[in-house]
Amino acid sequence: MQNVLYPLKFKPIFKDKIWGGRKIKEQLGMDYGPLPNCGEAWLLSGLWDEQSQVANGDFEGDEINDLVETFMGDLVGESVFDKYGEQFPLLLKIIDANDWLSVQVHPDDELAEKREIGYGKTEMWYVMQADQDAELVMGFNREMSREDYANVLKNNALQQVLNREKVAKNDVFFIPAGRVHALGPGIMVAEIQQTSDTTYRIYDWDRIDVAGMPRELHVAQSVEAIDGRMPESYRTEVADVMNKTVPVVDCQYFATNLLQLQGEMQKDYSNLDSFVILMPLEGKFSLTWENGAVFVKQGECILIPNLIKKVSIRAEEYCKLLEVYCQIEEK
Fold first, then answer.
1. pLDDT of residue 292
2. Cβ–Cβ contacts within 10 Å for residue 250, how many?
């Protein structure tokens, strides 16, 4: 008899980074063991060589893509399975920057396919915490063609054209593939992204690693990936309201909403052909469905299978969470 699908929690995957800090442990209470600089906690990953394992229930220890292969549309949605097959399409992280991350850019799907490296990487950041005067790099401070960009690199003038943004808690930045970016020190973000780990490192602040060597740069690869168009604002405005589903980002790869809850909210996903991920940014909540209930806290996420359409979310006092799913455009 086949086991029945239920909302899934996962074991985090921790990443030692030269720029990482201690907020993941000290502020979120996550135990990443002996890592000296934990820069990232991957809460849910479908990367083939670094898949998340289920942490609760009958499927504990199973890898996410094995469950996608088994349950297909019942888990991820028919349209999602038709597009992405047996690989889970999103990667959710918490990033703690104690120093500047490299200035980097990601390829889009077209360039990734051309270079045979899987999918491109469009992503978003939700700022969970930021120290006073923290800032990040987001895009350029003027329109930038690829020829302009190549000339900037040739003249070692990259820092002069980078756009810097002051950062505060609850800021949101959408980062389509092709936009240069870098997190600065003192910032912790929740990141939602396509399932891809392709990063072209453009500039690394003249930093050296523990072996006394500079990290590899990918300047030549980056030129074709650059999209130097400027939006009206690099920052995404999000309404601050309680007990409502507030849209944050809606792109072809994922949709993200913000829920600030006190008390209980009923959710009906009958019109959605997708899984739904709930990721608490503050506080914790209980998730109840027809056949059970589970608690979810900061530093965790929970995957609601497409098969489960009606759930109840009850906040423990106050809870702020992201709601994430896929919307596949009809051809």
1. 96
2. 11
* 331: pLDDT strictly greater than 80: no
Which string of DSSP letters, residue by residue, matches 170-183? T-EEEE-TT--EEP
Of 50, 58, 23, 53, give the one whose Cα is nearest residue 38. 23
Catalytic residue among 179, 201, 229, 235: 201
Q: Is 201 a catalytic residue?
A: yes
CATH topology of domain 245-325: Jelly Rolls (2.60.120)
**What three-state secondary structure class fits 74?**
helix
Ranges of beta strands (E only) in the chain are: 8-9, 13-21, 38-44, 90-97, 103-105, 123-130, 135-140, 162-166, 172-175, 181-182, 187-194, 200-203, 245-250, 255-268, 276-282, 284-289, 292-297, 302-304, 310-325
**Burial category of 237 from C-beta neighbours within 10 Å (exposed 0-12, middle 13-18, buried 19 and up):** exposed
Confidence band, pLDDT 50/70/90 cuts, at residue 328? confident
User: Domain map of the chain by residue range?
Assistant: 8-223, 245-325
pLDDT for 327 equals 86
Tokens of 67: 């469950």
The token pair at 289 is 């469905």
Q: What is the mean pLDDT of the chain?
A: 96
Topology match between the domains 8-223 and 245-325: yes
Q: What is the pLDDT of residues 88-107, one digit of tens each?
A: 999 999 999 999 999 999 99
Length of the chain in terms of residues written: 331
Q: Which two tokens stand for residue 325?
A: 């799913």
Return the CATH fold of 8-223. Answer: Jelly Rolls (2.60.120)
Enter the pTM of the model.
0.96
The reported pLDDT for the residue numbered 210 is 77
Q: Kindly tell me if the per-residue pLDDT of 116 is higher than 50.
A: yes
Average confidence (pLDDT) over 244-267: 98
